[in-house]
Amino acid sequence: MSTAPRIDIDPAAFWADPYPMLAKLRQEAPIAFVPQLGSTLLTRRDDISISEKQIDVFSSHQPAGLMNRLMGHNMMRKDGEAHQAERRAMFPTVSPKTVRAHWTALFQAHADRIIDAIAPGSRIDLMRDFALPFSGECLKSITGLTNIRYQDMDAWSQGMIEGIANYGGDPAVEARCHAATSGIDAAIDDILPVMRERPDQSILGVLLASGMPMDSVRANVKLAISGGQNEPRKAIAGTVWALLSHPDQLALVRSGEVSWLQAFEEYVRWISPIGMSPRRITKPWSIRDVSFETDERVFLMFGSANRDEQHFERADQFDVRRDTSKSVAFGAGPHFCAGAFASRAMIADVALPTLFASANKLELADDEPVRIGGWAFRGLQNLPVRWLH
């Protein structure tokens, strides 16, 4: 165990809203051991940015970690050349060139089809009726698993996300995660003959073509599903909610003074969909007056870094005019999100402008509260709106 001060948290309150406790930690104990999470937390942006790049100390390789155990050994849990080799194999799918030339048009077709099905003048849950199916359909295309329903994609993603954040060891949560990974394996097995005969630009297609071992192919497809569904749907619904809740800022975007990309980047700084990334200490190490032991687990709290008062004025406020260049919403080191460019295209180039152009007016419904939760993975759980054409 590190020599960091021991700080207790209320897990339920932390799940409901981690930001007050994270602010307290940044101020009073920026490196703290939290027994309820069984880990030492790094909460300041500079500590996290520096440490994430020191892969010889803060290793992503965690043989006994939840992700390895439940989803297989994917590139997120590898370091150095092992990580880079699998990242290079996936790059042809998610490169800026491929996203612009191939995926963006498909994203637009998915968005148009889903929006066309929304009845004019209806009261909808934008999370359920647009963000979730749009993210799911885009992910089906990118992964190559076009033989499933978007509902399956969403359920599998949620099952894995909950499983790898199951630090309390709830057996029901773990069982749902196993069911999700089994479903993905079955879907891969089902489409493999087609993919081997007619390889495409999808993740499954390029990984098979690279000669990657099948266990690693499966693990990396599961990785893409776990984050590629959960984070985009939360970021879409969340950015729409933030803009509708701040009409003056929505006006700035509509007028062109601020881009949709700026609005999206500010939202994922403000409420980071990926709030934490775990690391394993590989050798005795010290940061200022805190010493770490070998094999200790630490959490890099990205959600806290993105509200660090040393880098962001009025950090708790949503402000589309803000300079977000110091944000670590997509990571800060060699594990920077491989799908970041595709996510920006999905959300800033397609989802947000298409939604606001398709409805003459979107307004928050007043008959149901918006629910937000999570700390390792955080975001909206619903978004009731009135869709006025």
UniProtKB/TrEMBL annotation:
Gene3D superfamilies: Cytochrome P450. SUPFAM superfamilies: Cytochrome P450. Coiled coil: none annotated. This is Cytochrome P450. Its cofactor is heme. GO terms for molecular function: heme binding; iron ion binding; monooxygenase activity; oxidoreductase activity, acting on paired donors, with incorporation or reduction of molecular oxygen. PANTHER family: CYTOCHROME P450 YJIB-RELATED, P450, PUTATIVE (EUROFUNG)-RELATED. Belongs to the cytochrome P450 family. Keywords: Heme, Iron, Metal-binding, Monooxygenase, Oxidoreductase. Transmembrane segments: none annotated. Pfam families: p450. It comes from the Bacteria.
